[in-house]
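re: that complex we talked abt at group meeting.

here r the seqs, copy pasted straight from the sheet so there may be weird spacing, ignore it
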Amino acid sequence: MLGDRVNIKNVCVLGGSGFVGRHIVHQLAQADCRVRVLTRRRERAKGLIVLPTVEVVEANVFDAQDLARQFTGMDAVINLIGILHGGSGGRPERARSFEEVHVELPRRVVAACLGEGVPRLLHMSALGADRGGPSAYQRTKGAGEALVLEAGRIPREDGRSVAVTVFRPSVIFGPEDTFLNLFARLVRLFPVVPLANAKARFQPIYVEDVARAYVASLGEPRTFGQAYDLCGPASYSLEALVAFVARLVGSHARIVPLGPRLSYLQALALEFMPGRKLMTRDNFYSLQTDNVCAGSFPSIFGFDPMPLEAVAPRYLRQGMAGGRYDGFRRKARR
Ligand SMILES: NC(=O)c1ccc[n+]([C@@H]2O[C@H](COP(=O)([O-])OP(=O)(O)OC[C@H]3O[C@@H](n4cnc5c(N)ncnc54)[C@H](OP(=O)(O)O)[C@@H]3O)[C@@H](O)[C@H]2O)c1
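got the structure back, here u go
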């Protein structure tokens, strides 16, 4: 059982339109919270608009006044905004840099919480976040979580404070994930899949379990000031994960692990390919350290995380069934 919970009713979610955000917002709505989701484009969050206690608002989260306006009257803020590929930043028309999204934005979120008297902040970091880490993603995630935790520790002169909890998940799986679904597409499309960093280890966590941990911690005082590593029950090498996905979708693709030099060259080539980036050199650097938890899943949340094998077959096999009809749809122009 959880301890004496703080009553939290109004929650503002940044990044609520994303893969993880949508699950958190659904669970918050089920827990009778009124939720305000901030987004750059309202149509990105169209699946959430239909929920009766959820409002979706277009906002510029990098604008201090806009942020303060959106946070007024909130009992809690959840910041999930993060990027895998950093741009050069600096000007609005350029893609935001890691520093802007993972460090500058959390700084502004904390300032707006303190300014508007929001007492509770949940912050999304990532397993492996480390100010001294090998990639810019990990270093900036590390700096962001450190400044958020620090802000939660220091009481202000005006007596205002914000109780902070940080979450550090390994790779997250679930329907619409970008990780397993990407490999499912690759093994279906190609007979041979050259795999960079094949020995890197992950401990995937189910997206619904991440959302449950967020909702459980929201009003739970024992989680204030804490950072939690979130992992599923088992760890796998990347090669084992891709082989597992291939088996599920009935692919006989040959997975060819690449050595360090070829892995780097593949990341370099993919970084400069036009269109949506599959991988960058920064991702390659992130994969130099294993993404696994040192301990077991935090017992304070009151549940055990789902095994990958119990969930992934449902949506990956479904994807395969849907994929069979893609050709007909294309022909019928639907
Ligand atoms: N997925 C994983 O495996 C995983 C693992 C560990 C940690 N995480 C962390 O979990 C968080 C959520 O991940 P996700 O997979 O749900 O990501 P996602 O699907 O890409 O969603 C990211 C969200 O951030 C918002 N966003 C992105 N760039 C923005 C910008 N420049 N300005 C304002 N908003 C921006 C987007 O909002 P709009 O487009 O609606 O404005 C979107 O809702 C991230 O912080 C990520 O680092 C994810």
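couple things i noticed - Residues 15, 17-21, 39-41, 44, 61, 80-83, 96, 101, 124, 126, 169, 171-172, 179 surround NAP (CB under 6 Å). DSSP finds twelve helices and 13 strands in the chain.
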